[in-house]
Structures are given as C-alpha cells and as structure tokens.
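Ex. 9. Protein: Nitroreductase family protein.
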Amino acid sequence: MNVSTGSYQRVPGETSELGKTAPELWDQMTSLDPPAPVVVERIGSKDLSAAREIVEEAVFAMGPSGRRMVPSAGAIFPYAILVLCRYGAVQGNGRGTAPAATWGLFRLGANGSAVTRVPVPAAAAATLSQIIPLSTDLDQSYILTLTRPWLSMRKYGPRGYLYSQVDAAHAAVNILGTALQTVDAALHVDPSDLAARCILADYLPFHELHSVLVLRNRADRRGTFYFDVEIENTSAKKTPAFNFEAQAWSGLVDPLEANAVWVHAPGPEPVIATKQLESGQATLISDWRELSQKRKSAKAFSARKLTLAALDGVLESIGTPLPTNLTTGGQGSVELTVVLSHNASFSSAEEETLARRFSVRRIESPDHAGGIVKACMGQRHVAHAQAFLVLHSRRTDVIPSPETHSIRRVLFRAGAAAQLAYLGAARHGIGVFTVGGFDASAWKTYAQIGSDDEVLCLLALGSDVAKDSPRADQEEKATAHGE
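Predicted structure tokens for Nitroreductase family protein:
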C-alpha cells in the first residue's frame, strides 16, 4: 500500500494474501458449472396426490395475512417437506400407469405444481420405507419434514438452529392436524435411525430429519393423480473452501445428531404438561382446518382488554392431545408458565381461578412497560401485550451429554405448543406473537423459574391490531451481525 497515493501497487497477476492471483480470484467469482440436462418423467401416485393436498393446505397455502399457514422467524421457512410413497410410471399411451410398486422420495414445493423426485435409487427408497416407524401397513405413505438449519443460521447465527427446529415443529404439527381431518395419522418426532439418516444425507446434505408423519387408511381419491416430475440433480457441489454451510453443520448440527434416544409410543397425548382437558370439551382437532386458515401473527396490540375466557381458551388449546411418539411428562418435557402484564385487568378471583389450573405469575415492576420492551430486545409493540406464555424446560434436557440428549424433542414440544396457541388464539379472536429474540434471564425472573431451567419459547398475547406493515425481523438483512 502506497500511503502517499492511497493505492495498491501490486501487479494484477501477483499472488494475493489468499494465495491466489487476481485472475484466479475473478474466475472463482464468475465461473459456474453448466446446468445438468433437465429430466422429466410422467408418473402416477394416489398417495403422492393425497400427501401433496395435505401439505399444500397445511403449510404452503396463504392465510389472511397474505403469508403461509404457519409462522417462521424472518419468514425463512428453513425446512423441506418430502413424501415417501409408491408410484408407477405412466404407460406410453399416457392413459394409465404401471402398478404402483416402486418406492420414491418426492420433494414438495410451495408452488402447488412443483413436485420433484429426489434421485434415491428404488432399492434405497424401499429400505427407507422399511425402517420408517410403524412401516407395517401396505397402504402407508409418509410425509417427512427435514430442517435445513443453515437457512436460519446464516441470518441469526447459532440461534438460528433453535428457530429452524421451532419453525419445523409449527409445520409438522399443522400437517398432522390437517391430515387427521381425512386419514388416520401419527407423527414421529426426532427419528434417530442411523440407516435412515445415512440414506437421506447422501441425497439431501445438510438436512436434518425432523419428523415423519405416517399416513394410514388413505381415503380413496378420485380425479387426477398424474405428475410431470423433474428428477433433481445432486451432482453440483459447492466449492469446499467456501462451503460455509458445511462449517456450520460440522460445528453445531452434527454434534447434536449423536446420542439421541428414539422411542416408539405413538398415542394421543398433550405435547406439554398442562391441566387435563375437561370431559366432553371440544379440542382443536374438530375445526383445525378453519382455525389454520384464520391463524396469523399479530403485528401490534391494542388496549382492549382480554377476557379470562379467551386466555383460558388459548391455554386449553395447548393441551389438545395429538398422536405422536412423545409421552406427557417423559424425557424432554416442557412446562408452561403464564406471565400477566400490568395491562391485564383480571379480578383477583379470576386470577385465582386461572392459577388453580396453570402456573401463573404477575409482573410487579415500577418500569413494567420499559422492562418488557428491554426483555424482548427492543420490540416496542409487545409493551401492550397482556399475557406472555413462557415455555421452559430443564437445562439437563437441552444440554447434550455423553450419554443422551433430547434437545430436538424439547424444541419440538415448544414449537408444537406455540402452534396450538396460535390456533387457539384464532378460535378466540385474540392476537398472538412469537417473540424470537428475548433476554432469557429477564424472563426467568418474570416467570419465577429456577436457574436450572431454560426458556425455549416466548409468546405474547393481547388484542390484535391489524396492520399491513411486516414485522421488523422480516425486514432485517440476512446477516448475523446486525449491520
């Protein structure tokens, strides 16, 4: 560097500090491999058609806010939805199909017509179907949710891993609830079968198998079930030296893949420990589809007071039993504490009624509103919320140990409870907002939980004010440094 002229004096072809010449660096920035030829096949599959219809309605369809049916931190949606099912090749005349005896793995896109086939060999796909939970029914098919943590981590840093897990839980639970409207289904969370992970890793690198929805007793479908499916090309590889996704995976995700304990016990139970549902009380299952279509994230709260019935209804909704492999109170359990703000105007009798059934705390602070905003990392609109739902778990359940850990199951429970809270809020006409960034120590104090607990998820409840502007986290640049 010539200080007097303020310019570099290197010769254009000189080797840089990175060990490469300027032309080599330019070529690295601009050289791209030509795309592989597009291969499209015509197939037929009633199972694929039924699964795509469920996923489209549960995840990809647009809700009243003009966004997807499920929320996601920063509107990133860091996961992929795939279907493992039988299919048949369409015959030459295009009017029929060969017997649907071949197993295939298909990726579903946000566009209803976007279906691609992952080039997993038929034998490997069949093996995958045999080691998927409860693979005993000849008519079964499977919807797989796979997280891709890097998509969130590149914006939020390591915290993005937590977001990817919670976001995927929202999607998986909504797919389950939607599926239960028409078929017998059960959700298996955190499958840890090594063989299944290895098969998927070969064709879907840096994707983590989050959950498997088993679809049984498929209702007979009428209408079209033909697809023009593009076969994905997995030959394109990133330059290893700049594969930041690989570095993030090896540094954070891969260590969490080891020592997970898998259990097989599907049954309808609440995903977190709440009070028992009263006999005869309707659950969310009966009107899941309608509530899912109405669900939205609040962007602001008004001063209109919440009623006890509305708040109680949301808490009741969180206790909806779901057919999963997680048992209430088992390993990796999650607890709920309700924190009432100074904006809540319940009578002493109402608070006592609520406290008999739920863990309830009230914030007592001279600078209540300011403290809330600070504890939510400056998100000013939450100052007008009237109640906060703090989902927390024992530290020993989220910190990996040499023997075992249950962090993914814990985060699933938190995300599932949040999704049920969203649906309950839609039923009772109140606003709900998931607070992504928060001061965990402050919320431990507000919720009066011990130092051995970790705050997993925080939701704000209040009277919704409709606004068209997006939330701040959706406008931020995709950077983990806050520039």
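Check your answer against this statement. Residues 19 and 177 are 55 Å apart (CA to CA).
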